[in-house]
Amino acid sequence: MKTGLAALQCGQVMRSEGEGVIARSRSHDRHLKCIIGVMKPLLTILLIAVSVQAQSLADAARKERERQANLKPAITIKQAETITSAGAPSAETAKPKEPEKVKPAPAADPVEAWNAKVEQLRAKIRDLQDQETALQLQQTQLQNQVYAPVVDPAVKDQAQAELNNTLQQLAKVREDMDGSKKDLDAMQAEGPPKK
To answer: Given its phi and psi angles, is residue 90 left (phi above 0), alpha (psi -120 to 50 degrees) or beta?
Structure first.
C-alpha cells in the first residue's frame, strides 16, 4: 500500500492522513451556520448588557464618592474672638470666660452599646483570622526551607528557629481567636439587654 497518494476504491478517493484534510458533511456546515446565526444577536445583547452594567457601576461609585465628599461633620466647634481696630482683643474677650455648664450626656442606649461590643468582637475575630492565615503561609514557607532536599545546615537551623517561633505565634493567635469566639457566642446567647 502506498502512503501519501490517492487510491481509488469502489469509486471513492482516499487521502492519506499526511495531507491534513478534514472532511465535513454538508449538513454539518449548515448546522454551524444555523448556530452562528442565532448566537450573533445573543452575543451582541450580552456585550451591550455588560457595558451598560459597567457604566452604571462606575456612575454609582462616582456618585458615592461625591456624596461622601459633601458630607459635613456633625459637630462643629467654633471659637469666636472679636478683635478691635488696633489689633488687640476687645474687653469682652480679654477677661476670662466662665466655663459653660456642660449638659450631661444622655444615657447611652444599652442595646447600642451591646451592638458596638458585638461588632468589636467580630472585627477582632476577622483580624485574628487574617493573622492566622498569614502565619499558616509563613509556616508552610519555613517548612519548605527546613525540609528542602539540598539546604545549608546554617540556613536549615535558622529556618527551624523561625518555624518554632511562627508555631508559637500561631498557637497564641488561635487561643485568642477561640476566646473571642466564645465571648461572642456568650453575648449572642444572652441577647441584647432589655430596655
So the answer is: beta
pLDDT digits (tens, 9 = 90+) for 93-132: 555 555 556 565 556 788 888 889 999 999 999 999 999 9
Using CA atoms, how far apart are residues 2 and 16, in angstroms rounded to an integer? 9
In CATH, 108-190 is 1.10.287 = yes
Does residue 149 contact residue 169 with C-beta atoms inside 8 Å? no
Q: How far is CA 168 from the centre of its chain?
A: 28
Q: 191: Cβ–Cβ under 8 A, 6 or more apart, which residues?
A: none
Q: How far is CA 108 from CA 73, 186, 192, in A?
A: 21, 22, 14
| Per-residue model confidence as pLDDT tens digits over 142-165 | 898 888 888 888 888 998 999 999
| Dist. CA 140–CA 146, nearest whole Å | 10
